[in-house]
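Regression test attached.
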Amino acid sequence: MRYGRRRDPVLRDCSFRLPAGRICALIGPNGAGKSTLLALAAGMLRPTQGTVRALGASPAESRSRIGYAAQTRPLYPQLTVAATLRLGAELNPGRWDQEVAERVAFGTDLDPSARIRTLSGGQRTRVALALALGKRAELLLLDEPMADLDPVARHQLMGALLAVAVEHGTSVVMSSHVLAELEGACDHLLLLGRGQIRLAGDSEDVLTAHARLTGASPDFAPHTVVESGTTGRGHTALVRPQGPVDATTWLVEQPSMEELILAHLRNPGAPALFTGSASPAPSQEAAA
Amino acid sequence: MTTLSYSPRHGLIRAVLRLHRVPLWVWTMMVIAGASGLVWLHQLGQEPALYGESCGATGLLQCATELRYGSTELRSAQLVAWLPCGIAACAGAALIGRELEHGTAALAWSQSVSPARWLAAKLAVPAVALLGGTAALTLMFRWVWVSGPDGGVNRWNSEYFHAAGSVGPVYVLLGLALGALAALLTRRTLPATGLALTGMALAYTLGDQARSSLWPASEVRGPWGPALNQVDQLEAGMITKSGEHVSGLACGDQAVPGDLAACLSNHGAVDFYAKVHPTSHYWPIQLVETGVVLTLATAVVAAAFWVLRRSLP
């Protein structure tokens, strides 16, 4: 995906599959292409090359089954909160869940007759998420859903989101540049760096596919090294073990997800990892 | 769980109506104000007849009223001819450009409304409102103009041609379409408004230029008479002995004014001629221009949909 003819592509060779029913964290630094990827999947942009498939069809065909909350929280400033929800009901005939939308939008203290232009950033986020959740979508694409929410609202909304997802078996993709915002809620990981997928797969699988080795030798073969360096105790490396790890030569530790992600972002040369069903083969299509 | 059921098509139209409630009210108020003004103008037009005496004789009061009516009528014609077109161009550019600029268009697109349906609704609602309002004003202006005193106005004058005929409302549709296309191209309100108004001015000027060629002109022979003041004059000149039509030859510079025979022989000509559109060509030309502008507006709308589809799935 490329914006403008002369600009570098935002997303390039970005192929992956996302199994249905997962709650996926889309992690990446600023400018990695998270918002572009979500907008493509939601049918807000047409890819300059390649194909995107969502829910087994093109994003345009799946439009009524996809809920999308853009990062900019587009809302009509002149409408009230209640009128905005009514808009959602009118534009989603037969799919709208007013109860869920109201629960997400109003929370504890939001006045239904307040105009959107008078709301704070966090309150606008609540209304935008209410529109996405009220739609009873099969796939929810939420761009930075928790970014401007206070901790209480974050907890409350994550709870509401997970309840909806579990009740209806909804697939969810949530983007963030901070893993901590999403950790605990997500069971699937997509790490995006410089427009390409770096890690994709079940969170557990991705974690167990890596190990931190510390030892005297700087040679970590035959394992794939993601990041290596020297420490006071000798040489340490984050590797993807290829075959059994010799626990007598190395001190073997399980890295945390945070460490894993940082190591991959610091070392763009490390090969991408797709675990299990996340691999784009054989269809070479991104499907969710 | 509450599920509200709305019919999908009406839901979108209702949503667009509610979103643009304020501009729609403002337009309605403008149409009502315009209609009231035209009713007042009609009253003014009926006054001169009450004085009983004609303007040429002793009826000074009648002359003053007629003059006042004439200038007001011209100003009304200009307003009816120009204002709705400008408003339509601005409306197309602002209603669509603002949504693209602030990203609110994505709100509709993420709520089960395809971009093409969204654009169709965003165009249909203002189109109906603008067309209805302009058609009403045009009909009223025609009524005022036809029933008012004859101030010697040439019906082919650009303002009158727009304000009292079927071309007026279709230029409004063209303005809306141009505004929408400009908004989709620039994705910003202010540049789109400028672009749309420029395009509208261009279309207006081209229409004025091309109007006479839309229907084959008639040729009349003989010297210029007062009847020719009421027709669309394209070309006037003399016919030479060899039968050649020479445009632009006139008798304005001859020594004895009025001696047309001497003037003709001085130029080596046998008769005067003029190419004109008589009154009988008025409605054919109105209808042809209406068709041309409508086709143009359709093409611009198609281009707008093409631009939208180019960037969206």
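Expected vs. actual: identical. The longest helix of chain A spans residues 151-168.
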